[in-house]
Amino acid sequence: MLHQHAGQFDTSSDGTTSLAEILGAFSYALDLTEGQPEGHALRACWIASRMAVALKLPAAERRTIYYATLLKDLGCSSNAARIAELYLADDRQVKQEHKLLAVGLAPTLNYVFRRTGRGHPLGARAKAILAILRDGNAVVTDLIQTRCTRGADIARQLRFPEPVAQAIAGLDEHWDGTGKPLRLRGDAIPLAARLALLAQIADVFHAAAGADAAIEEVRARSGSWFEPALAQCFVALARDPAFWAEVTHPALETRVRAFEPAEQRVAVDEDYLDDIAAAFGAVIDAKSPYTGGHSGRVGYYAGALGAAMGLGGADLRTLKRGAMLHDVGKLAVSSRVLEKPGKLDDGEWEEMRSHAAHTTAILSRIGPLRDMAAVAGAHHERLDGRGYPLGLDAMLIAREARIITVCDFYDALTADRPYRAAMPVEKALGIMAGEVGKAIDGDCFAALSEIVTK
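Predicted structure:
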């Protein structure tokens, strides 16, 4: 579970908030999807930014490196379901373990045989292993292409200039041309991508086995994955114990925010915050092939329903953002659970239920969204007290939470799911009518019914 962040975000007199603050907080959600320890993206950003300073790069280049590294995993949710399907395993664990594999064919093959379908019947394991061996290279290229393209597109949606998008797209390219998806070589790979990949590997190995392991791994990949000059720069910094003390400092999140080049800082106004919420809604929906557009639709329904029930101005805007981000906690749930067509067992159901608490924890980190965090995380609470994660009853469930709940319920019924096809509007409303006063609020249901049947 993410720890709730106690610090406050600085807001300027004109009502704007720092972009670095907001996206640094959102980066924790990306760590969850990649199966990385909390703060991975922040640590990688720090490592890459320290190297950028050591290399005496100009402010504009440092800003590109800063955001490309912080947001390197923007597209990571888009290949989660496919990885879970390929390996018959938790996609987050597979991603985390893959990053720790030694370079070479033998370690990769050993991993495929050892990890694929563990715990499944022998026939299912054999079939999955054969599929990976037969189509492995093409599949990996496609997975990386999907991730890189999606990440670059979301970076553009977040209003970043093309150099940031291109750096995210080039994260998995290698100095010697053996990377993917385009097999770029040498200086054809954006410098920000080269630094982001090195920083990623350095943090992964440091977190797993310490500073010496990180230094050795970067050295081992120098000339193949990494530009030798960048590897040398990292090793020179990493020999100093103070460097790693900075990486693991409890106040790293605050320090990373301050590391953004001052002359390149961008403030976030209300319109930009709407765009950020929509962009991360797209990250959430990409986690499953069945949830495309779900966050946006729930946000739309919540906006219409909130207006119909008398909300307006800042309150309505905040509600719509919370609705778009209500499922951000699903980034912490294995796609094996999210995509399971049959009934979840007790452990799987517990993991699924955890997404609501993760939503509250993630949004609590983000200053402008903190007031909506508990409301967004309450979208599976029920008026009869039988919901989750807290078992709240009608006395304790806010009106905004009731609005998000009924919108989420309706869209879930009227969209395809792994276990059933989408329902017609009238059938969905009939099912929901049976839950009025138990799971959902009657006034919210009546207002939503009028909106969707116009």
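Summary: The two ends are 42 Å apart (CA to CA).
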